[in-house]
Prior knowledge:
- With 341 residues, the protein is mainly alpha-helical.
- 74% of the residues lie in helices and 0% in strands.
- It has 3 domains: 1-80, Tetratricopeptide repeat domain (Serine Threonine Protein Phosphatase 5, Tetratricopeptide repeat, Alpha Horseshoe); 83-174, Serine Threonine Protein Phosphatase 5, Tetratricopeptide repeat (Alpha Horseshoe); 213-341, Tetratricopeptide repeat domain (Serine Threonine Protein Phosphatase 5, Tetratricopeptide repeat).
- The protein has 20 helices and no strands.
- Helix 9 (133-146) crosses helix 10, helix 10 (151-163) packs antiparallel against helix 11 (167-180) and helix 16 (253-265) runs parallel beside helix 18 (287-299).
- The chain is elongated.
- 45% of the residues are buried.
- Its main location: membrane.
- Belongs to the Tom70 family.
- InterPro entries: TPR-like_helical_dom_sf (IPR011990), TPR_rpt (IPR019734).
- Keywords: Membrane, Repeat, TPR repeat, Transmembrane, Transmembrane helix.
Amino acid sequence: MKILESFTETAMPSPGVRFRLARCRLATGAYDAAAAGYASLIESGNDAVAVRHDLAFAQLCMREPQAAMATLESALAAFGPSPELLILKSRVNAMLGDYAQAALDADGALAMRPDDAQAMGVKSLALLDDSQLDAAAQAARDALERDPQQHEALLVASTISLWRQDLDPAQNFFERALARHPNSGRALSGYGQLLMLRNDLPQAGQVLEHAVVAMPDHIGTWHALAWNQLLRGDREGAEVSYRKAYDVDRNFGDTHGGLALVAVLRGDLDEAELSVRRALRLDPDAVTARYAQALLMEARGDADGSEAAIAKLLPDHSAFAALPVREFAQRLKSTLTAGPR
């Protein structure tokens, strides 16, 4: 990139140099600068499908999916469909939460290039996020047959294995994903949860701290970090993590449940009860709130009722990388008499 930048010191570089400089910036994570470079090329009449594709990709990386979609729609209108544009459109629709359309976009890419491992992997992740687990698993297998290192397919295979408590294959898939993409937020979050199940709490904590940096707006990852901190006796750290989750979305029941859990553990039973009520009003099935409620029962002398309530806790597999709360909750009971570490 230094060589390319040196051209700008003496004269306006050619469109080819400007494009390569923007692509270097894109590859190194300078998304704002890359997007500005691509926009400048378009404004100066040096438009091309690769320029539009990369501009949309930069916008996606900046978490501007609406702008990315507008750029893609203009590219499709000007240059026609291609596997690359449709795969990127699938990614953008997934960020917008339209997982069904994301899968259809990936199918469009596969119709044009049936052996495209990336298209199949992107489809598998859209299906996973759409809760079509069997179809997602099959698409991931198909993608990994084409490319054993395909990232989205590894995410799907690892996540489903984790949910099924198949820890050895899950670990293999997560580690393969992270070998090529060490800052993948979803892989880090799932791997951290797997390490918690392995009872490697210190290492899990490091991985989850990396995950929340890579993916700061994902509430479930903050919750995973909070559980890790609770299991290590770090109640203050857990409260900080739950409050970070609260900053992302104040209306998420399990976050209020987590704050209730922290309040119980520090002995503030009245505050815990208020937080449980808020949590269950927002989400009657909030697992963390139900666990906090069970601990409240125990703190108030109803040990049998508490045990019965904890026994009913089941993990929620409806969304990304569900926490195995029941197992974590059972472990947490042994820390109740421990002070902060």
